[in-house]
Amino acid sequence: MVTGSGTYGQPRCSLCSEPAVFFYRPVQRHLCRTHLFTAIEQRVADTVSDRNLIVQGDTVAVGLSGGKDSTALMMILTKLLPSWENVRLVAVTVDEGISGYREETVRSADRLARTLGVEHRHVTFPDLFGDSLDAILRGRESQACTICGILRKKALASAARDAGATKLATGHNLDDEAQSVLMNVLRGDLPRLVRDSSADSSGRFIPRIKPLRAVSEKEIATYLLLHEAWMDLPECPYARHALRREVRSILTSLEYHHPGTMLHLMESKGKIEKNCIGAIATGPLHSCRECGDPCSGELCQLCQLKKTLDRELSGNRP
Ligand code: SF4
Ligand code: ZN
Is 148 a pocket residue for ligand 1 (Cβ < 6 Å)? Predict the structure, then answer.
């Protein structure tokens, strides 16, 4: 096994003698292009099989925003598809109506779905809720991500249902998941910390799966760059209002100074989950009083939001 630097000081892959393109800091391992691709794709395949995220006969709707994570997810799932029996992929793109931002990522999603030959469906906020996110948020910009999150979730679920999907895959990566763990701890939201959205015993939700949950943002960026699929896309103009942004910057700094921090956070979540089975009341499933959708209280999040916004989010059924 050849490790460390080559003749001219260029690091070599820890698994072969090829030039290294990536340094995996938690285990101090250099990887060449081929071994990096294999490591990432194998980790996604393992995440899927260890957790039974995709099973024979599934139709998997992939939330394809056109951004980095969903692009990598679509590419990797397409590559792994032949290894699963009788599984179908369909890309679904939600256009919230965010001026100067979403148009470009939707174009990128269209291009990718065409290149990969995957069926592609679009839904828009104006169609589903009667207005664009920009219009809905006017004067409420500081709550942008909370409002957008609830509406996006409904929109994706609606598109997945219309596509006949049995699973809904999203591009959340290791960094996103570690940020969510920390955010839920900071908010004191233990039920949400241990909720498993990929398991649905009631049969009333389409289970949401996150095949990239063990792959870091840095690995995804390198994967896309080396596939020449990297795109310099604008950032959502509302992102600056998000708590997630602050948590992200704290975690990035911690990960830099203490490699493995994000993995440790995920391990902590796993241990809390294991020790808390049945101990944390997540409440029984009800039907929303207004729309009949499954929810934990009297009203689902969307119907609560409608009341808070004090406006009709009209349009077609979400
Ligand atoms: Fe929606 Fe916030 Fe993401 Fe923008 S940053 S797309 S507002 S959740
Ligand atoms: Zn409702």
Answer: yes
pTM over 0.85: yes
Calculate how far, in angstroms, residue 308's C-alpha sits from the geometric centre of ligand 2. Answer: 13
The token pair at 207 is 């289970």
Structure confidence by residue, pLDDT tens digits, 81-91: 999 999 999 99
Q: What is the DSSP string of 75-136?
A: HHHHHHGGGSTT-EEEEEEEE---TTTHHHHHHHHHHHHHHHT-EEEEEEHHHHHSS-HHHH
What confidence tens digit (pLDDT) does each residue in 204-231 have? 789 999 999 999 999 999 999 999 988 8
Query: CB-based burial of residue 4 (10 Å sphere; 0-12 exposed, 13-18 middle, 19+ buried)?
Result: exposed
Instruction: Tell me the CA–centroid distance for residue 249 and ligand 1, in Å.
Output: 17
pLDDT (average), residues 114-121: 97
Q: Which residue's CA lies nearest to atom 2 of ligand 1? A: 145
| Ligand 1 pocket check for 144: Cβ under 6 Å | yes
Q: How far is the CA of 78 from the centre of ligand 2 (A)?
A: 34
Q: How many Å apart are CA 127 and CA 4, to the nearest integer?
A: 55
149 CA: nearest ligand 1 atom = 8
Q: How far is the CA of 208 from the centre of ligand 1 (A)?
A: 18
166 CB-near residues (< 8 Å, 6+ apart): 57, 58, 59, 60, 206, 207
